[in-house]
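Appendix C reproduces, verbatim, an entry submitted by the partner laboratory led by Prof. M.T., so that reviewers can inspect both the input and the predicted structure.
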Amino acid sequence: MAVRQEAEVHALYGEEPVAFVRRRDAIAARLADDGDELAAARIRRLAAPTEGAYWVNQLARRWPQELAALLDVGERLRARLAAGSPDDLTDLEGERRVKTDALVALLWYHGESQAASGHHSPSPETLALVAETLRSAVVSADVAAAVRSGTLAETVALVSGVPLGLTGATPARGPAGPLALQRATSDLVAAEKRLDAVRETIDSLAGMVTDLQEQLDRLTRDRDKAATSLALWRRSETEAAQRLQEARSHLAALVEPPNQTGTTPGPNDDATA
């Protein structure tokens, strides 16, 4: 296929499914008009991407570095398995989940922003298919290459740890495959660690509740003592206020005695009868 046609095919798989069909047919018609029936036939045979595949292709176009980081996890995981390393894969599995969740979140936010301009956003079911395809890309180098190319026509599902939906993806050993068994073991270890962490948290919170209860009991006793003291001081305040009033009344009686009849006139009084 000519370089121009390869570029056109790559651009095609960046289109939404409906737009893909229109553009694909237009390219095929142009090639046929140019007399290249073989190239036109190849273009016509291109399968339109499913809804999920379209969004996987968006990852390769919009966030290639983030996608490459996830696929690198797959390379390291497959290399460790190929070397027969007995090391636990929990670290890689945790990294895979974090990076996968981040990519799916990017698609969701992008879809929401696109919806505001009239485009459609991915449904939860579509995002689940995207996540499953990314998981398959970690397991299979073939799926990883297809995802990285950004020209995926359909999503890829995992059945017993084996990617299904891409030509050439077959089990490596037995009905489940070694990676499925390793993944199950890793999941078991991760679940055990999670349970241990939960139990440690419970113990910590239980100790905290005990400490807080002791503090609450102590504060309750201090509150009761303070309330008793407050009541005593309020009674003292009442008594002191009464005594103050009595003292004021007594002082007033001494300073301003009542005027009585027959009192001896003062020196300034008029003595004329």
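Residues 69 and 117 are 30 Å apart (CA to CA). Additional entries are available on request from the coordinating office.
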